Each structure stands twice: as structure tokens, then as C-alpha cells.
């Protein structure tokens, strides 16, 4: 593939992502971006976790995770829980309000993507899906290669 086409593709992906983020932000009732929502989803899926473990799992720095956690605690979407045997051991846990916010975010995200893809025919969706699967296999192969 020509270098020019790669840059066109990158630009098109960035434009599409930006438009999706803008649309999502207009509809979501909380002052949150995607990173805090990913944290909520991780806590919803795997339960309470230490902040450091959560940062490692999602791939954020400790500083970024501290900022996200502080914001989510302030909004009462997560809470800090303490181990009775070791008060220094703090875990983050999603609250009921956090679960509701996550559910809302997921519904809006789904709506935004459905609107995005409704311009494609079934054949185009199938082609796009095949391309995405191929890209994901390439990502997994690089990850596996870098493990050794």
C-alpha cells in the first residue's frame, strides 16, 4: 500500500473517531471521556481492584489512573474500599450509580455505532468485519511475538 493511502486512511479513522466522540459526549450526562468509562467497565466485569492492578490491566500510567479514580470517586461512580486487616490496601469498587452510568454510556455508544454503520450495506458490513478481524489477528500476532 502506498504511504499516501496509509495517511489518508489514518486521517479518515481520526475524523470518524472524533465525530463519534463528539456525538457521544453530547448525549452522555457525565463529564467523562472514554478512559473513565473503560475503568468502570473493568470494575463492573472483574469486581473491586487495586488501583495499580487496574492501571496495568488497562494500560494506563499510575498518574493517569490516580486522576481517573479521583474523578470517578468525586462523581460517586466508584468508591474506595479498605481491607480490614491492612488499611493501606485500597481497592476501587463500582457503585450502583457507576453501574447505571456505565449502562447509559454503553447504550449511547451502541446507538452512535449503529448510526455510523447504517450507511453500509450488508455486504460492506461483512467486508468491514473481515478487515477488522484481520487487523485484530495482526495485533495479536505482534503481541505474541513481543512476549518471547
TrEMBL record:
<dbReference type="InterPro" id="IPR036388">
    <property type="entry name" value="WH-like_DNA-bd_sf"/>
</dbReference>
<dbReference type="InterPro" id="IPR000835">
    <property type="entry name" value="HTH_MarR-typ"/>
</dbReference>
<dbReference type="GO" id="GO:0003677">
    <property type="term" value="F:DNA binding"/>
</dbReference>
<dbReference type="Pfam" id="PF01047">
    <property type="entry name" value="MarR"/>
</dbReference>
<keyword id="KW-0805">Transcription regulation</keyword>
<dbReference type="GO" id="GO:0003700">
    <property type="term" value="F:DNA-binding transcription factor activity"/>
</dbReference>
<feature type="domain" description="HTH marR-type">
    <location>
        <begin position="3"/>
        <end position="137"/>
    </location>
</feature>
<keyword id="KW-0804">Transcription</keyword>
<dbReference type="InterPro" id="IPR036390">
    <property type="entry name" value="WH_DNA-bd_sf"/>
</dbReference>
<protein>
    <recommendedName>
        <fullName>HTH marR-type domain-containing protein</fullName>
    </recommendedName>
</protein>
<keyword id="KW-0238">DNA-binding</keyword>
Amino acid at each position: 500500500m502506498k504511504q499516501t493511502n496509509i495517511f489518508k486512511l489514518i486521517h479518515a479513522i481520526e475524523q470518524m473517531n472524533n465525530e463519534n466522540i463528539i456525538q457521544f459526549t453530547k448525549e452522555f450526562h457525565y463529564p467523562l471521556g472514554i478512559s473513565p468509562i473503560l475503568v468502570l467497565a473493568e470494575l463492573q466485569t472483574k469486581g473491586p481492584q487495586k488501583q495499580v492492578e487496574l492501571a496495568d490491566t488497562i494500560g494506563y500510567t499510575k498518574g493517569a489512573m490516580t486522576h481517573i479514580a479521583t474523578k470517578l470517586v468525586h462523581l460517586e461512580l466508584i468508591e474506595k474500599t479498605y481491607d480490614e486487616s491492612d488499611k493501606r490496601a485500597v481497592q476501587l469498587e463500582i457503585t450502583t450509580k457507576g453501574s447505571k452510568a456505565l449502562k447509559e454510556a454503553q447504550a449511547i455508544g451502541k446507538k452512535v455505532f449503529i448510526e455510523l454503520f447504517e450507511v453500509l450495506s450488508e455486504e460492506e458490513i461483512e467486508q468491514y468485519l473481515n478487515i477488522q478481524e484481520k487487523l485484530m489477528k495482526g495485533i495479536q500476532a505482534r503481541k505474541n511475538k513481543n512476549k518471547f
